[in-house]
Amino acid sequence: MGNKHKPKLGQNFLIDDRARHAIADALGDLSTRTVVEIGPGHGAITEILATRAKKLILIELDRALAAELRFRFRENPAVEILEGDVLEVDLAPLGQDLDVIGNLPYYITSDILLKLFAASRTGLIRRAVLMMQREVADRVSAAPGIKDYGLLSATAQMHARVDHLFTLPPEAFNPPPDVFSTVIRLEFAPRFAELGVEPAPFDAFLRQIYAQKRKTLRNNLRTAGHTPAAIDAAWPAGLPPEIRAEALSLEDTAALYCNLV
Ligand SMILES: C[S@@+](CC[C@H](N)C(=O)[O-])C[C@H]1O[C@@H](n2cnc3c(N)ncnc32)[C@H](O)[C@@H]1O
């Protein structure tokens, strides 16, 4: 494994042997599964998955790395390599009920998560095991009322159950990044139908109520154009008037939304 890397592409390669096995193990039995790996790089995790998955699809943007992977797995018919930007790849033709795995390129973590959430709404993906910057993982998994809870937490938890698996120090990578990294598992189970809300307008509502972090929920609703009378009429019983969106459960958020529209 050479030292050549492109920092712009988030290339911090995993060199901790136990960690790469733990990440692959976190997807469970793969013998009947189609797995999509985002950013396989030099293949630290890929090498393990390639002997386990029924089908393994690799999405790698770096041309030299994609060529290296094509050569390395040329005799394994279960492995398919898509050279390109994961944000541009249409996941629909890759199958249904996919498993996704990846030590993500951190510069596009949020965009990748949003893409996976959207894909989960149509049953395209079942589960994902993802490594990301620790602070982002903390936001994805935070409970309401906790400092890290916000739009990303609410959006993630509308789509999936989130498990924090483990955190790695910079030395687990070559070159070491400036941050700690956390592996999480997402079990996709979108909650829109259960909570009685439509996905796209509810997404827009979440963006409104988290628009300004320092404002109360009521003030964010006012800024979004709701009248004080409409807000009063929709306010769920027992909710403190000065509450911030960050302290609101998804159930209360959905109740408020349903009362307002
Ligand atoms: C953090 S490295 C992980 C590499 C390898 N999986 C590992 O764990 O050692 C991120 C990988 O994502 C690739 N990458 C960066 N941007 C990408 C994009 N937009 N689409 C697909 N892959 C990308 C990088 O080239 C790199 O191989």
TrEMBL record:
It is found in: Cytoplasm. S-adenosyl-L-methionine binds at N12, L14, G39, E60, D85, N103. The keyword rRNA processing applies. It comes from the Bacteria. Its EC number is 2.1.1.182. Residues 19-190 form the Ribosomal RNA adenine methylase transferase N-terminal domain. Transmembrane segments: none annotated. InterPro entries: KsgA/Erm (IPR001737), rRNA_Ade_diMease-like_C (IPR023165), rRNA_Ade_Mease_Trfase_CS (IPR020596), rRNA_Ade_methylase_Trfase_N (IPR020598), rRNA_adenine_dimethylase (IPR011530), SAM-dependent_MTases_sf (IPR029063). The keyword Cytoplasm applies. It holds the Pfam family RrnaAD. Keywords: Cytoplasm, Methyltransferase, RNA-binding, rRNA processing, S-adenosyl-L-methionine, Transferase. Belongs to the class I-like SAM-binding methyltransferase superfamily. rRNA adenine N(6)-methyltransferase family. RsmA subfamily. Specifically dimethylates two adjacent adenosines (A1518 and A1519) in the loop of a conserved hairpin near the 3'-end of 16S rRNA in the 30S particle. May play a critical role in biogenesis of 30S subunits. This is Ribosomal RNA small subunit methyltransferase A. The gene is rsmA.
